[in-house]
Amino acid sequence: MNTKIWLSSPHMGGNELKYVHEAFDENWVAPLGPNVNNFELDLEKFIGENTKIVALSAGTAALHLALIILGVKAGDEVICQSMTFSASANPIAYQAATPIFIDSEPNTWNMCPVALEEAIKDRIAKGKKPKAIIVVHLYGMPAKMDEILTIAQKYQIPVVEDAAEALGSSYKGQKCGSFGEMSILSFNGNKIITTSGGGALVCKTQEQKDQAVFLSTQARDNAPHYQHSQIGYNYRMSNISAGIGRGQMEVLEERIAQRRANHAFYKELFKDMEGVTLFTEPSEDFYSNHWLSAIVIDEDKAGFHREDLRLKFLEENIESRPLWKPMHLQPVFANAPYYGGNVAETLFNNGLCLPSGSNLTEEDRERIAKVVKKW
Questions:
Q1: What per-residue string of b and e applies to 80-117 under the rule 16 or more CB within 10 Å gives b?
Q2: Using 50, 70 and 90 to split pLDDT, how confident is the model at 31?
Q3: Cβ neighbours of residue 243 under 8 Å, at least 6 residues apart?
Q4: What are phi and psi of 373, to 5 degrees?
Q5: If DSSP states are collapsed to H, E and C, what string results for the chain?
Q6: Distance of alpha carbon 324 from alpha carbon 36, whole angstroms
Q7: Region 117-125: what's the mean pLDDT?
Q8: What is the mean pLDDT of the chain?
Q9: What is the CA radius of gyration of the chain?
Q10: Per-residue pLDDT reduced to its tens digit, 194-215
């Protein structure tokens, strides 16, 4: 059997071990240390906009802390993009709050501004003004941030920007991860760079960062003994993992270029295939890292369904996956309110994510093209 072509596998640059060895040599094998500090500084420099970074154990942990810092409590409501991975919505449930799911718009596949305002108006009319808005940059594609931020400001609701998939993407020249009142990043093994596991909280102020560090290190009060006045969490990134991250930051620009080159490959591959549409930037305002390249298949025009292509890839040991199943269709959130139409549902039914790793070889691309051209 052919070797497996993964959807998005880790891609080491070579210098990661140098920083990991430094941690061992200096005995900084703890959730603190020089690697953590320097990884945070590297990220702050990359994202810019005077951001303050807190390196954490996961992007999910970062989102949970963001909701806590923004005051989300039991019984509150939080607006969330429906078409996303469950980690965008689960922290709402951690706080015993209610997610209010919003449909996508067809240009970026991200939160629909029209449905967003409709939801806010309706929730306020029902006596429950949402406490926060979680917007996601799906597969690295920036959301329509001008429209979303205008609505958020109009109703004075803070935006939490889920940029887990969008490190290196930008909207109108501004880096994703710098738009929200607070934002989150992910360094899971399948992301554009990885720390094995891990994530980060992007803050606007030093006060927010200090609060996040306090909460993520078990909320220990300033006392010579162990004293705690509020609930804390064990969410800080380890110095070992941060060492991997420092090495990965050295090759981040290369990884973005390689993912975008994959997108260009798929653009050429599908250009003459009727009924197949490649997910791409709607205008020059949007710059995607193309973390995952994806297509939507119109079965009536193409003559095959996305599942037919997925299974053909599988026969050749090539991994591809359907788009995220929207949260409002998930059993665990079956009772949550939803606003919008069927854009997200249609994308899920007809969309397919394609192998997009920055370590795809020319031979890998030839194997992928061979499967597609059989159609």
A1: bbbbbbebbbbbbeebebbbbbbbbbeebbbbbbbbbb
A2: confident
A3: 16, 19, 20, 22, 23, 35, 39
A4: -70, -20
A5: CCCCECCCCCCCCCCHHHHHHHHHHCCCCCCCCHHHHHHHHHHHHHHCCCCEEEEECEHHHHHHHHHHHCCCCCCCEEEEECCCCHHHCHHHHHCCCEEEEECECCCCCCECHHHHHHHHHHHHHCCCCCCEEEEECHHHCCCCHHHHHHHHHHCCCCEEEECCCCCCCEECCEECCCCCCEEEEECCCCCCCCCCCEEEEEECCHHHHHHHHHHHECCCCCCCCCCCCCCCCECECCHHHHHHHHHHHCCHHHHHHHHHHHHHHHHHHHCCCCCEEECCCCCCCEECCCCCEEEEECHHHHCCCHHHHHHHHHHCCECCEECCCCHHHCHHHCCCCEECCCHHHHHHHHEEEECCCCCCCHHHHHHHHHHHHCC
A6: 32
A7: 98
A8: 97
A9: 21
A10: 999 999 999 999 999 999 999 9
Residue 300 tokens, joined: 């009536």
Give the per-residue pLDDT at 322: 98
pTM strictly above 0.85: yes
Please compute the mean of the pLDDT values over residues 62-70 and round it to a whole number.
Answer: 98
For the chain, percent of residues with pLDDT exceeding 90: 97
Q: What is the strand order of the sheet 276-278 is part of?
A: 276-278, 293-297, 351-354, 321-322
Answer whether residue 286 shows pLDDT above 90: yes
